[in-house]
Write a structure and sequence with these properties.
This protein has helices at 2-40, 47-61, 64-69, 85-120, 138-159, 161-170; strands at residues 123-126, 129-132. By secondary structure, it is mostly helical. The chain has one domain (2-170). Strands 1-2 form a two-stranded antiparallel ribbon. The chain is elongated and about 65 Å long. The model has no long low-confidence stretch (mean pLDDT 90).
């Protein structure tokens, strides 16, 4: 189990770094388009589609597991101050179970969509060029799958400290 926890945490961290790389690539790509358009009157026609289909989807979905493991997702803790440590642990467990179920359902539907788009070979027409975009449908599927796995491990970790502690250490 310790190997699974370490592996999941490392994969989540890599996905977080990939999404950071997507931000940098998006910034450089847009800057290049602006410079070329203003200095040389040359426009890169595919920039809006690449930004919307690839950079933004990678940025939105790939770091979900990393955010979950680091506890950086938005949370509302109205009654946590009044709960005992044992009750708080059970509450955290239930929240993680609900999050696991929601992420798993989102992953399941997105894997179906990604496979369907792969079979059809989805394209976007840009002037005279047809740009394939079916690849971008895998970002949400991968992100939700990893987030479901991390939330499942976190839910188990809330009840069993020997699993929860390595997860918290791996997030550092």
């Amino acid at each position: 189990m310790a190997r699974l926890v370490t592996f999941a945490a490392q994969v989540a961290k890599v996905m977080g770094y990939l999404s950071a790389l997507a931000v940098v690539a998006m910034m450089l790509h847009i800057c290049l388009d602006v410079v070329l358009r203003n200095a040389f009157r040359v426009s890169l026609d595919t920039v809006p589609e690449i930004v919307a289909r690839y950079y933004m989807t990678a940025l939105a979905f790939l770091p979900l597991a990393w955010l979950e493991i680091r506890r950086d997702m938005i949370s509302v803790e109205l009654l946590d101050f009044a709960l005992t440590p044992g009750t708080r642990r059970v509450s955290d467990f239930l929240v993680m179970v609900v999050a696991t179920v929601v992420y798993a359902l989102l992953a399941w539907t997105n894997w179906g969509k990604a496979l369907a788009e792969t079979r059809t070979g989805t394209l976007v027409e840009i002037a005279t060029y047809k740009m394939p975009v079916w690849h971008s449908f895998y970002f949400p599927a991968v992100g939700f799958t990893l987030a479901a796995l991390i939330c499942a491990l976190l839910s188990i970790g809330r009840l069993h400290p020997y699993i929860g502690t390595p997860l918290e250490e791996a997030a550092k």
